[in-house]
Amino acid sequence: MREKHTRWAIALLLVGAGFVTAAEQAAPTTSGAESVAPKSEAQTLLESLPAWLRNMKISGDFRYRHERADDETKTTERDRHRIRARLLVSSKVNEQVDATIGLASGTDESATNTNQELTESFSSKDLWLDLAFINYHPASIEGLNVFAGKIRNLYYNPGNSDLLFDTDVNPEGIAATYRRTLAKDVTLFSTFGGYYVHERSTEVDTSLWGIQGGVTCKVPRAEGVDVTAGAGYFDYGNIEGQLALGSSTTNFRGNRSVGGLYENDFNLLRAFGEVAFKIAGRPCKVFGDLLVNNDADSGDDTGYLVGAGMGKCKDPGSWAFSYNYRDLEADCAVAALSDSTFAGGGTGVRGHKLAIAYQLGKNCTLGANYMIGKRQRAETTDYDVLLAEVNFKF
Fold first, then answer.
1. 3-state class of 250 per DSSP?
2. Are 65 and 388 in contact (CB under 8 A)?
């Protein structure tokens, strides 16, 4: 029994590391009909595994970052080194169902932060369940995917916008996506989801229902030009009059509160657009994202982001640059789920973000971000952030 387990472990390592090549997995034959080449030991081990184990894929990434925050309300700038580590395991359960489990670093259970500070006298660091979901894609309905669990953010975000959700946020619940090509140059896409934001044992839960639809069109007689546009509606249930969401029940991160409770409800309309094109063979895009909270009595109900980008990090020596300007009023979104870095995070912020990245080598990228922000709390203060990082993928 121990020998069998050892052989399975070796085979799994070979699959995960990619040492079993496609040529080894296929049964090689010679030109003669009756002559068959012997199977390699790796192929024999692979075939002894259950199908779900043979289909398993392992991937991940690691980031090392230096962050400098210049908060006008503080007497000194803050410098810290932070790491992010993520590991993803996925497998095909059957022809119509896939399963994924992901682990990630993080200082606490915050939905918007997978960074881990290097501190506390070389202490061990936490690892959290970051993803855990199934993906059902029925063969009878092409283009439909149904997800359940702690899933990735499935909504289209122009220019990687983080107004509505920080890029680390992975919603929890049930969602579906559907894509359909109507014509050669027109593709429709949509996402619908119902999510559990906060469960309460003796009161009504806080929920989120979100729907989004959009279209991508290739512009006739304009080679390489694509236009994407769409809209969405996001309805938070039972949030007004509740404690703050997130890792702290007293920190509203810019949202207005009365007596330690949310002052407003959040029912958000969203509109977005993006135009992709090429300049001198380099991919470029311009984009915009708009949020309006229909139920914000305070009047501070609007948030927007506009920006542009050029280049793409793909091959060693390639580079990318982007810029955006944002203005998030206090109650345009749920601050606990918005970007956690710009001007200290949350809403009631505005300013500029510049980002540049360089592909140093295969699966290795250098990057830098500079955010020139203003933060509105009791008063408006400057809050600038500089990030310098190196990213590795495997």
1. coil
2. yes
**Does the pLDDT value for residue 54 go beyond 60?**
yes
Q: Using the predicted structure, report yes or no on whether residue 16 has a pLDDT greater than 60.
A: no
Closest CA to 173 of 207, 202, 205, 150: 150
Burial of 352 (0-12, 13-18, 19+ CB in 10 A): middle
What pairs with residue 175 in β-bridges?
A: 147, 193
Instruction: Give the separation between CA 336 and CA 154, rounded to whole angstroms.
Output: 19
Task: Kindly report the CATH number that applies to the domain delimited by 55-393.
Answer: 2.40.160.10
Q: For residue 272, what are its two tokens?
A: 């977005």
pTM of the complete model: 0.88
Q: What pLDDT digit, counting tens, does each position of 157-205 carry?
A: 999 999 999 999 999 999 999 999 998 899 999 999 999 999 999 899 9
Question: What is the predicted pLDDT for the residue at 23?
Answer: 40
The more confidently predicted of residues 166 and 38 is 166
- Which residues are within 8 A (CB) of 102 and not within 5 positions of it... i.e. 6 or more apart? 86, 87, 88, 89, 129, 130, 131, 132
Determine the residue type at 256.
R
pLDDT at residue 24 tops 50: no
Task: Give exposure, 290-318, as e/b (b: 16+ Cβ within 10 Å).
Answer: bbbbeebeeebbebbbbbebbbebeeeee
Instruction: Please state the length of the chain.
Output: 394
Query: Domains of the chain: which residue ranges?
Result: 1-54, 55-393
> What is the Cα 388 distance to its own chain's centre?
20
